[in-house]
TrEMBL record:
Its EC number is 2.7.13.3. Residues 122-172 form the PAC domain. Residues 8-42 form a coiled coil. Pfam families: HATPase_c, HisKA, PAS_9. Residues 176-392 form the Histidine kinase domain. It catalyses: ATP + protein L-histidine = ADP + protein N-phospho-L-histidine. The keyword Ribonucleoprotein does not apply. Keywords: Coiled coil, Kinase, Phosphoprotein, Transferase, Two-component regulatory system. It is an enzyme of class 2 (transferase). This is histidine kinase.
Length: 395
């Protein structure tokens, strides 16, 4: 019979067993950490490979810059875009070396927004100088990313020179067309004014004829303002839009802005909210925005019989919205709706128009210190809206 172990011996064996188990667990943990480290390292290397592949083979110009706008990496497309033959000619230089002095402010704004304001991404249009001295218009989009303790900027540059030239051609065409329209419109306006004065003095004129003549004069006045706006499109770009504010109730513009809708007998306009609310704004230009919204509904939601205008009094602003029950707007189009010349494709065709209505509306509301936007859901319709600040002494 084996001798019975003492309490002390059992205690020592337990301690040794615990030590052995602890050592085993420690070794296992180290092995797991080693395996995880290897997995992380492998995934990091794979990620770097994917990034390098995308960077190198992108058809758009790609570059990486530091906070002081020094170029630390470029891809072949960027080298070709600037007209050079190798990366080494560009790496180590500054992006300002390829920018006309008058455009340096664009890159300084990018620098401020990304590195000082911590904006997630920043986009701009600017001009770059190629090696041969020629200029190209570019769309620049940049984001920040961390790299070995430093924050770098990853920038994608697209050559939009052709698009920019096309826009200039459109501007020239609009300028010529609207200038040519001014003379006949002025004559038409004078004739309608004379006709309406004569109608007022004639009791035998049917009321409907008098109403049509008055509407014709109103629409001619609106057309005159539109022509002036198109002639002055450049002022919108330069922030020189003229705003003539005065107090007026919204009913002044909402009640009479949509008579053309009633005349087509296919649609009707409903109003809700307090139309008697007074705003301090440019009456003509607010009328223009509402008409643009209504015409947009007629154009893109022709099957929507009802077009609803709503006025809301909120805490520090007034919101005016125009809603339809049409097909809605594709999500990919929404961010661009207020861009200059942007038009929604319907199938393989575009609806008639110059694509300036919503752009001009956005500039008008911006000049009033308000906001503009759209809410839309496919199959359920769209609501275009804008806000105006509540009247204050700051006006």
């Amino acid at each position: 019979m084996a001798p019975q172990k003492t309490h002390q011996e059992n205690h020592e064996e337990t301690i040794i067993a615990l030590k052995n188990e602890n050592e085993r667990l420690k070794n296992e943990n180290q092995q797991l950490q080693s395996n995880n480290s290897q997995v992380d390292k492998t995934e990091f290397q794979n990620s770097q490979t994917r990034f390098s592949t995308i960077f190198e083979y992108s058809r758009l110009g790609n570059k990486v810059i530091t906070a002081d706008l020094k170029i630390v990496q470029v891809n072949p497309a960027m080298v070709a875009l600037l007209g050079y033959s190798s990366k080494e000619e560009i790496i180590g230089t500054q992006i300002l070396d390829y920018s006309p002095k008058e455009n340096h402010k664009h890159w300084q704004m990018l620098q401020k927004q990304l590195w000082k304001e911590a904006t997630p991404s920043f986009s701009l249009e600017t001009v770059l100088i190629r090696k041969d001295g020629s200029l190209i218009w570019c769309q620049v989009t940049s984001i920040l990313f961390p790299d070995q303790g430093e924050t770098l900027g990853y920038t994608i540059i697209e050559d939009i020179t052709e698009k920019h030239d096309l826009r200039l051609q459109k501007d020239e065409f609009i300028g010529i067309a609207t200038h040519e329209l001014k003379t006949p419109i002025t004559s038409l306006k004078a004739s309608l004014q004379l006709m309406n004065r004569m109608i007022k003095n004639e009791s035998a004129i049917p009321e409907k004829i008098a109403k049509l003549a008055a509407d014709a004069q109103l629409y001619t006045l609106k057309l005159t303002h539109l022509v002036e706006d198109y002639l002055n499109t450049a002022k919108y770009e330069q922030g020189k839009l003229s705003i003539n504010k005065r107090c007026f109730p919204l009913s002044d513009v909402i009640d009479g802005c949509c008579n053309h809708v009633q005349l087509d007998r296919r649609h009707y306009v409903t109003h809700s909210g307090d139309l008697a609310i007074e705003v301090y704004a440019d009456r003509h230009k607010i009328d223009q925005v509402i008409v643009n919204f209504v015409n947009n509904a007629l154009k893109y939601a022709p099957a929507s019989e009802e077009i609803a205008i709503r006025v809301e009094q909120l805490k520090d602003h007034i919101k005016i919205s125009v809603s339809d029950k049409g097909a809605g707007i594709p999500p990919e189009d929404i961010p661009h709706l207020f861009d200059r010349y942007y038009q929604i494709n319907k199938g393989n065709t575009q609806t008639p128009g110059l694509g300036l209505g919503l752009y001009i509306s956005a500039q008008i509301i911006k000049a009033h210190g308000g906001e503009i936007g759209v809410d839309s859901e496919l199959g359920k319709g769209s609501t275009f809206w804008f806000t105006l600040p509540v009247q204050s002494d700051s006006f």
